[in-house]
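User: Design a sequence. Structure:
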């Protein structure tokens, strides 16, 4: 269940932070690659919705909370969007059924991101694509130490968000490889969430275009 704090304090702040122009640019570039059967995991306030191409076979959003944020309905505009309750770590989706899986700024707050990525690998078709944008652990020692030190407090106020996750390693462990160079490596958020991992990922190099 969404707490009062999450609904009235954290979500409005997050919504504002995640719609700054650089993040919007990143969303536009990333989501232009969505095709076919599309599932977005952790839709939040629906900030990706205006950026999807018009011609998709089907668009679904999975959210772990019982209630979807009202902004989702406004941002869907007139487009058909199916809302499904579920957890990224245990997706209520058939294996090898999805062409495009979208996950933006979600894995920082998932309890076990490796389990979520294994689920993404399970539900994607062999030629499917994961469109991902996440803030991750900095490769720079000093920044990494600061992220590690800040995470316990940050997690507390930011509804479980961790600043120090090594998601590149988790992606590789789940069998994902970058389809092309990352869509954007430029920071789109300020420190301590400035290190970005973003792009289109497929399952295994051999099957990539
Ligand atoms: C920071 S918000 C990002 C929202 C949106 N993806 C965006 O790019 O603006 C994180 C979202 O991840 C969702 N989330 C966190 N853990 C999840 C989980 N285990 N399964 C599904 N959604 C989850 C939260 O409910 C929240 O909506």
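Assistant: Done.
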């Amino acid at each position: 269940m969404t707490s009062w704090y999450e609904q009235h304090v954290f979500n409005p702040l997050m919504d504002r932070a995640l719609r700054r122009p650089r993040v919007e640019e990143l969303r536009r570039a990333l989501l232009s690659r969505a095709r076919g059967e599309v599932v977005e995991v952790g839709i939040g306030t629906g900030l990706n919705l205006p950026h999807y191409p018009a011609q998709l076979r089907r668009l679904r959003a999975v959210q772990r909370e019982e209630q979807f944020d009202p902004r989702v309905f406004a941002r869907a505009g007139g487009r058909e969007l199916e809302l499904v309750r579920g957890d990224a770590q245990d997706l209520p989706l058939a294996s090898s059924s999805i062409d495009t899986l979208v996950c933006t700024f979600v894995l920082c707050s998932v309890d076990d991101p490796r389990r979520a990525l294994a689920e993404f690998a399970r539900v994607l078709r062999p030629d499917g694509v994961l469109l991902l944008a996440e803030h991750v652990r900095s490769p720079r020692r000093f920044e990494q130490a600061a992220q590690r030190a800040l995470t316990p407090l940050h997690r507390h106020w930011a509804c479980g968000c961790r600043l120090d996750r090594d998601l590149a390693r988790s992606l590789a462990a789940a069998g994902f490889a970058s389809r092309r160079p990352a869509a954007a490596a430029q920071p789109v958020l300020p420190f301590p969430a400035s290190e970005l991992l973003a792009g289109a990922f497929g399952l295994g190099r051999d099957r990539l275009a």
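The mean pLDDT is 92. The first strand starts at residue 37 and ends at 41.
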